[in-house]
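tool_call: predict_structure(chain=1)
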Amino acid sequence: GKALSIRDRKVVKDANGQQLAIIKEKMISFKKGQVIETASGQDVATVQRKRLIQIGGNATVNLSSGEEWTVDGNVLQHNFKILGPGGREVANVRKKHTALSIVTDADAYTITVHAGIDCALIVALAISLDEIFHDDD
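tool_result:
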């Protein structure tokens, strides 16, 4: 998939150009965060830093279903797990460092999504976390 930036929003698309998710800045919040929506505009999740001033990269993901997921690991180094209820891993995200990514400054990730989890949501979460914690890049 691909993310296309339009102002303060990003659109996640599949290989055929079909919209899968929309990522928007959370406008009124003390903690930096974003909202993830379906292609039709329905809220799916809110992602935000755990603390206002933060060393390290921990975040929470509040799903519209009422579930809360946590981000465990080092978001700043692009190596983290997304944990569901009871600490169950739902996905693992790692940045790939290749010669091409260094030369082109293009980010490449390995994302492992566990069975029964929405892949588009996890890709949108990875993009959102990158935006929240690396907005100066």
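agent: Residues 119-133 form the longest helix (15 residues). Proceeding to next step.
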